[in-house]
Amino acid sequence: MSKRVLLGLLLACGLTASALAQEPKMGGTINAVIQPEPPGLMLAMVQNGPVQMVSGNIFEGLLRYSPKLEPVPELAESWSVSEDAKTYTFKLRKGVTWHDGKPFTAADVLFSVEMLKQTHARARNNLAQVDKVEAPDDYTVVFTLKQPFGPFLGIFEVGSMPMVPKHLYDGTDWKTNPYNNAPVGTGPFMFKEWQKGSFIRLVKNPNYYEKGKPYLDEIYWQIIPDAAARSVAYETGKVDVLPGGSVENFDVPRLSKLKDTCVTGAGWEFFSPLAWLWLNNRQGPLADKRVRQAIMYAIDRDFAKDVIWNGLGKVATGPSASTIKYYTDDVPKYPYDPAKAKALLKEAGYKGEKIRILPLAYGETWQRWGEAVKQNLMDVGMNIETIATDVAGGNQKIGDWDYDIAFTYLYQYGDPALGVGRNYVSSAIAKGQVFNNVEGYSNPEIDKLFADGAVATPDSKRKEIYEKAQKILVEDVPVAWMLELQFPTIMRCKVKNLITTGIGVNDGFKDAWLDK
Amino acid sequence: MKQFWKSMLKSPSGVIGLVILLLAISVAVFGPLLFPNSPWRMVQRPFLPPFMLSTVPLGTDALGRDVFAGMIFGARVSLLVGLVSTLVALVVGVPIGAMAGYFGGKVDDALMRFTEFFQTIPSFALAIVLVAILQPSIYSIVASIAVVSWPPVARLVRGEVLSLRTREYVQAAVVTGQSNTWIILREILPNALSPVIVLASLMVATAILLESSLSFLGLGDPNLISWGYMVGAGRTVIRQAWWITVFPGVAILISVLGLNLIGEGLNDALNPRLSREGR
């Protein structure tokens, strides 16, 4: 094996290999970009992407998740599940303190669950199957479910269920609590200061329960509103980490080629953003399954991946991203085949009725994607008109079902019961909302499969149910699945071990260190 | 008329401007016949530099679309928007100015305060707001450009009419009992037209610039390619691919320059004080 090949292999193994080979070094400051500026940092109250990214390093959940989405101990050091899969017992870690020195106990967990049910929509949903939560002693928490709920161990991630200090929030008005502006958590980093419009500074928690961690002294989250300026800030060395989505795609190849720069697509497995086109199943030509299938054949999704997303991501095969549990690619396939699309349109009797397409107003990449898809569809003889709109206007149109085709992407949260079913079951058809069954697809068989799948045991049974659901959905094409998106994180190679979990940068600074 | 063409063709800037305009119009009219393919079609690999392939002489953009085809189709949109919105602005501005100048008094006051209301709002900001509210489409763009560009026409026409109003031949017409409409249309306006024509040629140029700026900001008609859109879309990749922005940018520059030269030529030709024969 020549030296060059060996070098290539080493580079390909990338971060993990080199990190394993070295002992972490202590100290140092990291500058990372946060985009856009978060509206607040109290994770239990606001959960926008940037809030999760900063505060996930201040707060902690009971569990962490590996890139394969297996639960790993965090504030809970162990857990057990009863025979009937209805009782989950968590043993909490001892010796954990809040940033103000008070001990973290089971009372905090009980309080957090109650608070989150009121302040955190997704947590409320996730906890819907919970009958009661009890604390037999200070370091044990028992969740009793109404019925078995397969994805239950997947809901304890820091952004989904952050632990809140009871002694600072109990009995106060949560919305106006002064600690919302100076959050107190149990995490490896403590909030220090926030210069609005400029930076957020976190410092090392010296009393962190995992001895020796964190390795870094401080993190500056730099706030830079302009995309081009963010790229320049990285080039000039002002920042060391560009988290996924903080620069435009076409800048990624250029920045990746810079000296001492490492790029990874890892760290989004828990979210697994999947992009698709809403197809309005209710009216017009798109009510015909054959027209929807024709759309799948007509769109060159490899082109979108290679050209518009610069080769990042993966062509989607169906409703689940490939990183989601029970994913199967044993489903009908829709390769790029304009001839077949034309034939299907003809068969369906499509006669050039006008079809409106609504691109996503999230910047250049999405605009270009809208143009490319429009051209693909026009090439097979569809009469497409683009409707220009902003984010709010687009959401309104989609929520009012006033569209024919619309771009979107949604997070999937690791389990089909948490992030997939909501887009296809008929109980999730509700006007005015944009993340539910917007397309108006209704199929009793699918409703039953998703209802059964959420509560079925054991895992093998769930697998069977969800694989069946995927096959039916892909045959019916309720929406046109495009790409599993990848938001690459760009950083200096001297930043080690930043991305080790399924949520990446969001809780990654615990293990990160700087090779000086 | 003959005199006008003679002097127009004597002024070098007018000739250059006319040549450019004729060229642009013929590209806009006949170009799409030579390039039957849609400019949105992805024809080659993305970011192909110019002068590499004869089929895509000016290279391709970020999606592999032909920059040359985009420029030819863009000429159509730019010129159309420029001409139509100027016409609309004239249709609105000339009657308002004429009425204000002819009737004077309260009518003048009311119309001019109304005009000033539009003039006090920065025109580009107003255009952006209008397009954003009306949803970007070729119609809303033409409408908003017309809305922001008629006030200067009204002011100019009013000034001309005010000075012509007191001439003897107008007063003679009043005395002979002609109707106001007839006097405005037949006696006053024809004599007030030359500065309006000069202004109109410059307004077309401004309208092209406005349309380009709107498209640059992503407020163009999403179903039509235009020069401004091409510059805006290519701006973000200018460090990797200069040609995507530079060629349409040059097209905007040349056409606006051409229209300005025509304006200058018209000014020379139509201004009676710059005597043509004796110089």
Automatic annotation (TrEMBL), chain A:
<dbReference type="GO" id="GO:1904680">
    <property type="term" value="F:peptide transmembrane transporter activity"/>
</dbReference>
<dbReference type="GO" id="GO:0043190">
    <property type="term" value="C:ATP-binding cassette (ABC) transporter complex"/>
</dbReference>
<dbReference type="GO" id="GO:0015833">
    <property type="term" value="P:peptide transport"/>
</dbReference>
<dbReference type="GO" id="GO:0030288">
    <property type="term" value="C:outer membrane-bounded periplasmic space"/>
</dbReference>
<dbReference type="InterPro" id="IPR039424">
    <property type="entry name" value="SBP_5"/>
</dbReference>
<comment type="similarity">
    <text>Belongs to the bacterial solute-binding protein 5 family.</text>
</comment>
<dbReference type="Pfam" id="PF00496">
    <property type="entry name" value="SBP_bac_5"/>
</dbReference>
<feature type="domain" description="Solute-binding protein family 5">
    <location>
        <begin position="70"/>
        <end position="422"/>
    </location>
</feature>
<dbReference type="InterPro" id="IPR000914">
    <property type="entry name" value="SBP_5_dom"/>
</dbReference>
<keyword id="KW-0732">Signal</keyword>
<protein>
    <submittedName>
        <fullName>ABC transporter substrate-binding protein</fullName>
    </submittedName>
</protein>
<feature type="signal peptide">
    <location>
        <begin position="1"/>
        <end position="21"/>
    </location>
</feature>
<dbReference type="InterPro" id="IPR030678">
    <property type="entry name" value="Peptide/Ni-bd"/>
</dbReference>
Automatic annotation (TrEMBL), chain B:
<keyword id="KW-1003">Cell membrane</keyword>
<protein>
    <submittedName>
        <fullName>ABC transporter permease</fullName>
    </submittedName>
</protein>
<dbReference type="GO" id="GO:0015031">
    <property type="term" value="P:protein transport"/>
</dbReference>
<dbReference type="GO" id="GO:0055085">
    <property type="term" value="P:transmembrane transport"/>
</dbReference>
<comment type="similarity">
    <text>Belongs to the binding-protein-dependent transport system permease family.</text>
</comment>
<feature type="domain" description="ABC transmembrane type-1">
    <location>
        <begin position="75"/>
        <end position="263"/>
    </location>
</feature>
<feature type="transmembrane region" description="Helical">
    <location>
        <begin position="124"/>
        <end position="148"/>
    </location>
</feature>
<dbReference type="Pfam" id="PF12911">
    <property type="entry name" value="OppC_N"/>
</dbReference>
<feature type="transmembrane region" description="Helical">
    <location>
        <begin position="240"/>
        <end position="263"/>
    </location>
</feature>
<keyword id="KW-0653">Protein transport</keyword>
<dbReference type="GO" id="GO:0005886">
    <property type="term" value="C:plasma membrane"/>
</dbReference>
<feature type="transmembrane region" description="Helical">
    <location>
        <begin position="196"/>
        <end position="220"/>
    </location>
</feature>
<keyword id="KW-0472">Membrane</keyword>
<dbReference type="InterPro" id="IPR025966">
    <property type="entry name" value="OppC_N"/>
</dbReference>
<dbReference type="Pfam" id="PF00528">
    <property type="entry name" value="BPD_transp_1"/>
</dbReference>
<dbReference type="InterPro" id="IPR035906">
    <property type="entry name" value="MetI-like_sf"/>
</dbReference>
<keyword id="KW-1133">Transmembrane helix</keyword>
<dbReference type="InterPro" id="IPR000515">
    <property type="entry name" value="MetI-like"/>
</dbReference>
<keyword id="KW-0571">Peptide transport</keyword>
<feature type="transmembrane region" description="Helical">
    <location>
        <begin position="80"/>
        <end position="104"/>
    </location>
</feature>
<keyword id="KW-0812">Transmembrane</keyword>
<feature type="transmembrane region" description="Helical">
    <location>
        <begin position="12"/>
        <end position="35"/>
    </location>
</feature>
